[in-house]
Amino acid sequence: MTHISYSELKNWDFCPFYHKIVYIDKIPAFRGNEYTAFGSAIHEVCEKKLLKEDIDFKDLFVEEFKSRLKVLHEDEVEFNLDRVKEMVPQGIALLPEILPAVKEYFEDYETISTEEMLMVPIEDSTYNFKGYIDAVFKTPDGKHHIVDWKSCSWGWDARRRADRLTTYQLTLYKHYYCKAHNVDPSIVETHFALLKRTAKKNLVEIFRVTSGKKKTQNALKLLNMALYNIEKGRYIKKRTSCTKCIFHRTEHCP
């Protein structure tokens, strides 16, 4: 089934030629590091916590973190062992803060789903939009709340919080969640939940991100522009991204 995800769209926006190298030529790019392993392990714990399964969350985090680091090691990806040793207690300190933060922010709520997969047809396209929604809550006022967990160090500055492409993730998730469940967009709100490794306080911070009609139109316009150019095989280099690209001046992108 032909599909595009938010991460693929983000890579296309970074540079269409980079997208070609990674998704068409299948040249491996970023394969992860200790930070992504940490984030994936924390995500797994968040999912289990919200479902309130009777398990030891500390042990789950440690085992999940080890498992993801093992995969990186087998793929010959180098990571900083000293930093890994620092991350373990940081993750353990985060765990007991997650549910209280969710309860304080939403107060009374019901968990509708965790790690919900979207595979929804894109309007006027042969593609589907693929995504995984970390959590959906429903509050007594009838509203649905889409939440995406983001592990980070100390938090996000104002620029990151308002970044167009960063917030488009939630905008697109909301749009296709509503399509998949036939839900009125006016009763769906979107939120990021920052899980901070190195913060001294407020280790979990949840904040709302607006995803109104105009923003949705802009996000869909970018998505359709990407699909149009991908289907036409138009992979123009975005020169402003060259200095940040791992393929710059390599055999893959001379």
Explain what this protein looks like in three dimensions.
The chain has helices at 6-14, 16-24, 34-51, 57-74, 81-106, 158-162, 164-181, 213-232, and strands at residues 3-5, 110-121, 128-138, 144-152, 188-196, 204-209. Strands 1, 2, 3, 4, 5 and 6 form a 6-stranded mixed sheet that branches. It starts with a strand and ends in a 22-residue tail after the last helix. It is of the alpha/beta class and 254 residues long. Helix 1 (6-14) crosses helix 2 (16-24) and helix 4 crosses helix 5. It has 8 helices and 6 strands; from the N terminus they run E-H-H-H-H-H-E-E-E-H-H-E-E-H. The chain has one domain (3-244): Lambda Exonuclease, Chain A (Alpha-Beta Complex). The mean pLDDT is 95.
Task: Summarize the entry for a quick read.
This protein is of the alpha/beta class. It has helices spanning 6-14, 16-24, 34-51, 57-74, 81-106, 158-162, 164-181, 213-232, and strands at residues 3-5, 110-121, 128-138, 144-152, 188-196, 204-209. The chain has one domain (3-244): Lambda Exonuclease, Chain A, CATH 3.90.320.10.
- Subunit organisation of the chains: single chain
Q: What's the CATH first level?
A: Alpha Beta
Number of individual domains: 1
CATH fold name, please? Lambda Exonuclease, Chain A
Name the shape in a single word. globular
CATH hierarchy: architecture: Alpha-Beta Complex
What ranges have pLDDT less than 50 throughout 5 or more consecutive residues? none
Q: What summary fits the major beta sheet?
A: 6 strands, mixed
